[in-house]
Amino acid sequence: MMFRDSFKYYKSRNPAPDLSNVIDLENLDCIRVRNIKAHITGEEIEDNFGLKSVEKWKIYELLDIPGLIFIQNPFTPNGQRYWITRCLKDYSKEPYKLNIDAHNILNNETWWDICFQTSERAKTLLPKLRWATLGYHHNWDTKLYSENSKSDMPTELFGLTSILAKALGFSNFKAEAAIVNYYRMNSTLAGHTDHSEMNVTAPLFSISFGQTAIFLIGGPRQEDPTNAMFLRSGDVVIMSNSSRLRYHGVPKILPASKTPWDDNREESKKNSMYNCDDWCKARTYIAEARINMNVRQVLKPGQIVLY
Hints:
The protein has helices at about 5-10, 75-90, 110-115, 120-125, 155-165, 265-270, 275-285; strands at about 35, 60, 70, 95-100, 130-135, 175-185, 190, 205-210, 210-215, 225-230, 235-240, 250-255, 290-295. It is α+β, with helices and mostly antiparallel strands. It has one domain (about 5-15, about 35-295): Jelly Rolls. It is globular and about 50 Å long.
């Protein structure tokens, strides 16, 4: 099926779609993939950013889609809690831009501070957060980036994607912009290509947490056939080389069959990377939501500023 038909098929609620052809990283017996070995070792990671040791990572490339790489949940449970909390508490406020900014809902308050109170306002506002932009702010109208509209990239997100990039041999990757998407269970992400960056040869990193998504990827044209795959909490997708400009989207969110963010909680409290009170709030959110961080390089190598 072409992209639009596939998207409509998987989005359908009645009748529900048949998921038997969806590629499943946890059951790869019949899927044409190749295993990739990481280019770095655990000893080379000074700060692990919530990652398991590199030797434990499972990395695959789809043979049908060269350049489309998957790292199956390289995060520790502690790391998942850390990143989920970061996305909700820190990336949902200034200096980052949010979809709700245009509605003047926040009066010198933050979305996080309001939404985890027991009030009618909190209940109304919580699902309204759909995206945040970090670094170079993506302009949804012009589809362009500007030197006049940017914030600093969070250092921890810059560090995380640098480690992921080095592990895959993209040693020159530099995170300069990110969009954090906040999905409710009825959310979708329409099919699109990411072509706004000056540099479309650099890979795009997409990191998922929370409930499971069906990720749909086609070809460079809407008419090209598609592949669907499950993205579970912690999974990382890298769109590189010829896969970088393919149509992709998310037609459906499904309840997660596992909750890795709940694993080993008692054991890791002493070494937690997050505030436990904050995590209690974040946990109520992620129980019925999905968060996706997609990080990209904007400038070409050697380019200092945008034109």
